[in-house]
Design goal:
The protein is built from 5 helices and 2 strands, in the order ββααααα. By secondary structure, it is mostly helical.
């Protein structure tokens, strides 16, 4: 499994760049993914999506479907894509430390 170094932390990642375990997530990981995704600054809306994804994952063991994510955040899907240009599955779930979604996220 590849490893990336960022801000003095080592993160094991899979072939798609997702962190190896949700338990290894921290805010430095968020900063690393933010840089990889080309997002300049994270605002409260970014953090709301991250928090909702993490809360849902902790309760259900999977990432929510996009409709559920949209409903839980109150953000239209288009806006979520504006916040996370690579999408809710690739960008937002990766930033939140969730495993790569297998379904429709």
């Amino acid at each position: 499994m590849p490893t990336v170094e960022f801000e003095g932390n080592s993160f094991n990642i899979d072939e798609d760049g997702f962190i190896d375990s949700f338990e290894n997530w921290n805010k430095d990981w968020v900063q690393y993914v933010k840089q990889q995704e080309g997002i300049d600054e994270l605002n409260d809306e970014h953090w709301k999506v991250i928090d909702v994804l993490q809360d849902y994952y902790k309760k259900n063991g999977i990432a929510p479907m996009v409709r559920v994510l949209s409903k839980l955040t109150g953000f239209k899907l288009k806006h979520i894509y504006e916040l996370f240009p690579s999408g809710p599955g690739k960008g937002a779930c990766k930033m939140a430390g969730l495993p790569k979604p297998t379904g429709c996220v």
